[in-house]
C-alpha cells in the first residue's frame, strides 16, 4: 500500500537547503504542497532553489541568504521567513562543513570552522527558530552524520561537531517536549552525487568498496533521506522524539570499516610526499 504525505498549509524551513541532501529534502516537501523556505550562504543558490521548489509544486517558496555562524543574521533571516510564512511546522537544520585532514596537520582555525558551522551553527538555528515554532506540533530535524558516533581518521573535527549536534537533539527533546515540539536527528548513509560522498570517497576504488559493504546492495539517493524527513515531519511520527535515526542501508552496522583507515592512509601519504 502506497503511503502519501500532505503538507498543504504547513510551513517547512530547510537551513542549508540549496544543495545536496538538503535540497532534495526541500524539494520533497515542496512536491507534497508545503510552503517551503530555504537558507544558505549563496544568494544565487537560494534563487535557483526557490525556482525549483515552485516547479516542484510548493504552495509558496522563498529563500534568504545568511551564514549560520552569524547569530544575528540567522535571527534576522528566520524572522523574515516567519513574517512571510507564519509559524514553522517543520525545521530542517542541515548546514555543515567538512574536509579530510589529519588532526596533526589541521590548523586550529580549520578545526574551529567546522565546529562553528556544524555545532555552533546548529545552536544559532535552534535558538533563533524557537519563538517561531508551532506549538504544539513542530518537528525539528537535525541532519547529523555517522562521525557523531563512529571514529574516522581524518575527521576529528566532524566527529566532535556532529556528536555535539546529536546531544543538542537529545537535550532539546527534553527541554522543549512539554511544549509539543519534537526534535530528532537523521544520519544519512552514503548518498550518491553529493559533495559529502565525493569527499569521503574521492576515487572510484573507494566508492566501489563502500558499495560492496552496504547490506542493501546500493548507494542511497537524496529521496531516501527526504522520505525519513517527510515521516518525521508528519503526524505519523507524533510520538517520535529524541531519536538519532540512520538512513544508511545498514552500512554503519559495520562501523567505519576500512573507509576510515583508507582515508587516514591517503592523508598520511599526501603528507609524506610534501
Helix content: 40-55%
CATH class label? Alpha Beta
Topology, number of strands: 7
Biggest sheet record: 7 strands, parallel
Q: Unreliable runs, pLDDT <50, ≥5 residues? A: none
Mean pLDDT: 94
Total count of helical runs of at least 4 residues: 9
Corresponding CATH architecture: 3-Layer(aba) Sandwich
The topology string of helices and strands comes to EHEHEHEHEHEHHHEH
Radius of gyration: 18 Å
| Portion in strands | 5-15%
CATH homologous superfamily classification: NAD(P)-binding Rossmann-like Domain
How many discrete structural domains?
Answer: 1
Query: In oligomeric terms, what are we looking at?
Result: single chain
Q: Overview of this structure, please?
A:
This protein has 274 residues and is α/β, with parallel strands linked by helices. It has one domain (11-273): Rossmann fold. Helix content is 46%, strand content 14%. It is built from nine helices and seven strands; from the N terminus they run βαβαβαβαβαβαααβα. The protein has a seven-stranded parallel sheet, sandwiched between helices. Helix 1 packs across helix 8, helix 3 packs parallel to helix 4 and helix 4 packs parallel to helix 5 (156-175). The radius of gyration is 18 Å and the shape is globular. The model has no long low-confidence stretch (mean pLDDT 94).
